[in-house]
């Protein structure tokens, strides 16, 4: 589970930590991925195509969300993204012909189950970890690339980026799309692991959970996000197991779990907003030895006024 | 649907939303962030009434007053405990903290009161017929209470010293401080007011429908819509916004033109549509937002 959530957390981090978009609708992307791949697999289409289809639809959704919102402030963005995600959830909940509405999809078959039988969970773990590794590497490469630099620039000073001639909308949309695809992957993996999904599975609480992972772990830092995902998932599952030891009604434990996660978010936000592993600052070092190099930098900053 | 019925429905819905909307907009204005927690405070207020009235057998009105005051105090506590440390942080951080707080309050409600649906035990009300519309006494009460609260608030803002200091801080914080107003104190007052209002809103909702832990959060979208519609930070805007929103919702659902009818199941999506339209057409809201 850590792996799956780590994938989703990384996707959110790409949008939030890197580009500074406050996307609170991430669960929607997960949902798209989950439902698409589940439905397709159940219709007999090979697993990989279902997943890819989920990613494509997710990208479309990301684009649709990005369109009216690219100029909004962070808090508006948050509200719009929650609204969009909730609308999508409402749609799936209501349209029974699409995916059984509120009853959800049950018994989603696990890919390649016949091959592995008993040791299936181990296989799936391996599979998820491989995906995680790929996602991690891909996103880190993007982070280091010029594309990533622009995104980080967008996060810090959007106006400057615009002044430099970057099409802000295009970059934001791309960030949303990439984040969306990866989240869809996470969603698909989730669906086939738990074998049951319903609109309830993708309630806003899920997005908040992923946010907590980023905040606790360190937004902007992929390693930190992994740490965050690990910590939060451990917390989640350990409190689930705790129920058996404490003889408390499970609804109470569920509430306590959400309570502690909420508290954790607050604590971290107040005490250590950068998270456990803060982002490494990329410092461009000036080789002070060379006079020419130093002289060039101020010149460029002053602009083409010469 | 009859016009008078529509009007009553709109007024009722607007009343419930307006109070939470005022709560939201107050925090937005003086503390400069989008608090996702106000809706949860509303729910909390409603549940505290439950504790006093159903749990301890207190008179409902007395319980309500007590709950409102307590919720207000709790709001002040969260400022001292959480948001005080975030004054220098970005608005975004405060927003995230409020989300954590919202989750926390909701879970707390669930821990203390359980997740089942509860209500105030008022029983089925005998509806009255007024001007051709069917209205239960409770709904009339809701509108009256909301109106009184808002009127009281207006008078408070303009006729009392505390109200004046709030307005001053809202207009120009540095200037207010320079004239000797203790802005930290003002912030506490605002938290009290905001959460008290939210509590009133929550109690009214509980009176009309039932109580469940998520009762605040299901309204998140609607209340934010109301605030954005009216202009963020503008208390009167929240009042106007709630009327417009309630009107849009009720009229939108009542439309039955040539076979096209907006499905009731999609009511929350209506909020989304209104939100997008507002942001596209007039993002500063009907009455305009305060510039900080």
Account of the protein in words:
- The complex is a heterodimer of chains A (306) and B (292).
- The N and C termini of chain A lie far apart (58 Å).
- Chain A has a domain at 2-212.
- Chain A is globular and about 60 Å long.
- The model of chain A is unreliable at 285-306 (pLDDT under 50).
- Chain A has 14 helices and 2 strands, in the order αααααβαααααβαααα.
- Chain A is mostly helical.
- In chain A, helix 2 (26-42) crosses helix 10 (168-194).
- Chain B has one domain (3-213).
- Chain B is built from 11 helices and 4 strands; from the N terminus they run H-H-H-H-E-E-H-H-H-H-H-H-E-E-H.
- In chain B, a hairpin with a 2-residue loop joins strand 1 and strand 2 (133-135).
- Chain B is globular and about 55 Å long.
Topology:
The complex is a heterodimer of chains A (306) and B (292).
Chain A: H1 2-18, H2 26-42, H3 47-69, H4 74-94, H5 96-99, E1 105-106, H6 113-116, H7 120-144, H8 146-156, H9 158-163, H10 168-194, E2 196-197, H11 204-217, H12 222-246, H13 250-271, H14 291-301
Antiparallel strand pairs in A: 1-2
Helix pairs in contact in A: 1-7, 1-10, 1-11, 1-12, 2-3, 2-4, 2-10, 3-10, 7-8, 8-10, 11-12, 11-13, 12-13
Chain B: H1 3-31, H2 38-55, H3 60-81, H4 91-113, E1 128-130, E2 133-135, H5 137-159, H6 161-171, H7 173-178, H8 183-208, H9 220-230, H10 235-254, E3 256-257, E4 260-261, H11 267-281
Antiparallel strand pairs in B: 1-2, 3-4
């Amino acid at each position: 589970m850590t792996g799956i959530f780590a994938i989703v957390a990384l996707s959110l981090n790409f949008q939030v930590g890197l580009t500074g978009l406050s996307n609170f609708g991430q669960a929607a992307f997960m949902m798209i991925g989950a439902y698409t791949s589940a439905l397709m697999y159940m219709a007999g289409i090979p697993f990989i195509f279902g997943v890819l289809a989920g990613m494509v639809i997710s990208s479309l959704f990301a684009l649709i969300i990005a369109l009216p919102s690219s100029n909004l402030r962070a808090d508006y963005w948050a509200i719009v993204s929650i609204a969009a995600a909730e609308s999508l959830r409402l749609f799936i909940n209501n349209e029974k012909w699409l995916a059984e509405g509120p009853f959800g999809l049950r018994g989603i078959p696990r890919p390649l189950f016949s091959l592995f039988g008993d040791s299936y969970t181990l296989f799936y773990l391996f599979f998820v970890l491989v995906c995680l590794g790929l996602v991690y590497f891909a996103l880190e490469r993007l982070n280091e690339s010029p594309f990533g630099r622009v995104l980080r620039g967008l996060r810090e000073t959007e106006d400057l980026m615009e002044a430099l001639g970057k099409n802000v909308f295009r970059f934001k949309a791309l960030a949303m799309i990439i984040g969306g695809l990866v989240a869809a992957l996470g969603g698909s993996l989730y669906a086939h692991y738990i074998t049951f999904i319903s609109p309830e599975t993708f309630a806003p609480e899920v997005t908040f959970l992923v946010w907590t992972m980023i905040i606790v772990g360190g937004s902007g830092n992929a390693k930190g996000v992994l740490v965050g995902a690990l910590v939060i998932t451990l917390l989640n599952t350990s409190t689930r197991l705790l129920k058996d030891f404490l003889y408390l009604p499970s609804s109470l434990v569920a509430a306590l779990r959400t309570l502690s996660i909420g508290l954790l978010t607050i604590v971290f936000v107040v005490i250590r907003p950068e998270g456990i592993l803060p982002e490494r600052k990329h410092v461009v070092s000036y080789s002070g030895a060379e006079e020419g190099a130093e002289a060039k930098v101020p010149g460029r900053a002053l602009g083409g006024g010469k | 649907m009859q016009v008078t019925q529509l009007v009553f429905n709109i007024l009722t819905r607007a009343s419930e939303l307006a109070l939470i909307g005022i709560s939201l907009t107050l925090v937005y204005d003086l503390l400069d962030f989008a608090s996702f927690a106000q809706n949860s405070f509303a729910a909390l207020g409603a549940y505290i009434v439950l504790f006093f009235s159903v749990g301890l057998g207190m008179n409902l009105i007395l319980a309500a007053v007590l709950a409102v005051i307590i919720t207000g105090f709790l709001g002040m506590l969260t400022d001292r405990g959480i948001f005080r440390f975030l004054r220098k942080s970005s608005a975004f951080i405060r927003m995230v903290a409020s989300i954590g707080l919202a989750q926390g309050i909701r879970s707390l409600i669930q821990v203390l009161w359980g997740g089942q649906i509860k209500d105030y035990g008022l029983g089925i009300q005998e509806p009255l017929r007024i001007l051709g519309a069917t209205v239960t006494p409770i709904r009339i009460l809701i509108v009256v209470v909301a109106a009184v609260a808002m009127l009281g608030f207006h008078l408070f803002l303009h006729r009392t010293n505390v109200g004046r200091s709030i307005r001053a801080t809202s207009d120009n914080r540095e200037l207010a401080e320079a004239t000797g107003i203790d802005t930290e104190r003002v912030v506490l007052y605002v938290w009290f007011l905001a959460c008290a209002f939210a509590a009133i809103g929550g109690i009214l909702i509980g009176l009309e429908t039932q109580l469940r832990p998520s009762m605040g959060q299901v309204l998140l979208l609607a209340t934010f819509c109301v605030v954005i519609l009216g202009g963020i930070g503008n208390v009167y805007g929240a009042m106007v916004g709630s009327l417009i929103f309630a009107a849009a919702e009720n009229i939108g659902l009542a439309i039955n033109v040539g076979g096209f009818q907006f499905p009731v199941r999609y009511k929350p999506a209506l909020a989304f549509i209104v939100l997008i339209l507002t942001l596209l057409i007039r993002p500063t809201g009907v009455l305009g937002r305060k510039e900080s």
